[in-house]
Amino acid sequence: MTEKTTKKRTTEEKRTDENVIYIGRKPPMSYVLAVVTQFNGNGSKEVILKARGKSISTAVDTAEIVRNRFITNAKIKDIIISTESITNEEGRDSNVSSIEISLTTIKKTWDIKQ
Amino acid sequence: MTEKTTKKRTTEEKRTDENVIYIGRKPPMSYVLAVVTQFNGNGSKEVILKARGKSISTAVDTAEIVRNRFITNAKIKDIIISTESITNEEGRDSNVSSIEISLTTIKKTWDIKQ
Fold first, then answer.
1. Would you say residue B16 has pLDDT above 70?
2. Would strands B46-52 and A93-105 be described as parallel, antiparallel, or unpaired?
3. ipTM tops the 0.95 cut
4. Would you call B99 an interface residue with chain A, using a CB distance cutoff of 8 Å?
5. Chain B interface includes A64 (CB < 8 A)
6. CB neighbourhood size of A69 (10 A)
7. Residue A9, pLDDT score
8. How far off is chain A from B112, nearest CA to CA, in Å?
9. CB-neighbour burial class of residue B48 (10 A; exposed 0-12, middle 13-18, buried 19+)
10. Helix (H) or strand (E) holding B50
11. What secondary structure letter does DSSP report for A42?
12. For residues B92 and B99, which has the higher predicted lDDT (pLDDT)?
């Protein structure tokens, strides 16, 4: 109930938790690039997409585009939905739905190269 | 790829599959009422919310409002996201993300009344 959110929150949290991608109002492809970079560039085994409110559908779009077109061995490990309480600038509390989609890549067998 | 959708689809499917609620562009409370009626009036043990595109966030809102405010023993059994191929009126194929949220009530123990 006393949780405060600022406009800078997304950027701040992205720095502290590397494999979490915060989905906002940009087109899905912006976030697809971020997810692909996280998997391929940074070698993450798991990437978590987080979104609130109207951005929830963009999070689902992002996950679907990633696993259908870019990282075909990526699976959806878990989807959690919840409600967050937000205090807006006028000091009023309001509830917003949120989603967390965990994408994970299957462990590859390296038998072929050995 | 050859799947065809018409504007009447939502209404048609609602008739054939009673415990499925199709989420569209109305406010979440419209669908909350439908879900609560399904659980309490029709005695369903499981209700499935289906939504596509921008309505996905409304489906999440609906599920959250139902279990937080109306049917507190309802749990989220499963969440599935997928991609559907739609042929629009100009005959072009396009992909749209979809979500299915299964809500279920825990079996009550009637010990108290006996």
1. no
2. unpaired
3. no
4. yes
5. yes
6. 12
7. 46
8. 31
9. buried
10. strand B46-52
11. S
12. B99
CA dihedral B67, B73, B76, B77 (to 10 degrees): -160
* B30 to chain A, closest Cα gap in Å: 17
Helix (H) or strand (E) holding A9: helix A9-16
**How many Cβ pairs closer than 8 A exist between chain A and B?**
44
A110 φ, ψ (degrees, to nearest 5) = -100, 15
Q: What is the DSSP string of A86-101?
A: EE-TTS-EEEEEEEEE
Q: Which residues contact A53 (CB under 8 A, 6 or more apart)?
A: A96, A97, A98, B57
Interface-testing mutation among B23, B29, B81, B82, with chain A (most A C-beta atoms within 10 A): B81
pLDDT confidence of B11, banded at 50, 70, 90?
Answer: very low
Task: Tell if the CB–CB gap between B82 and A64 is shorter than 8 Å.
Answer: yes
CA distances from A21 to A25, A32, A37, B41, B97 (A): 13, 10, 11, 41, 19
- Dump pLDDT digits (tens) for A32-70: 999 999 999 888 899 999 999 999 999 999 999 999 999
Q: Which residues does residue B93 pair with via DSSP β-bridges, in sequence order? A: B87
The contacts of residue A71 (CB under 8 Å, 6+ apart) are A35, A36, A39, A40, A103, A105
pLDDT score for A66? 97
Interchain CB contact of B85 with A (< 8 Å): no
Residue B113 neighbours by CB distance under 10 Å: 6
| Residue indicated by tokens 């799947």 | B3
Q: Which among B104, B103, B82, B84 has a CA at the least distance from the CA of B94? A: B84
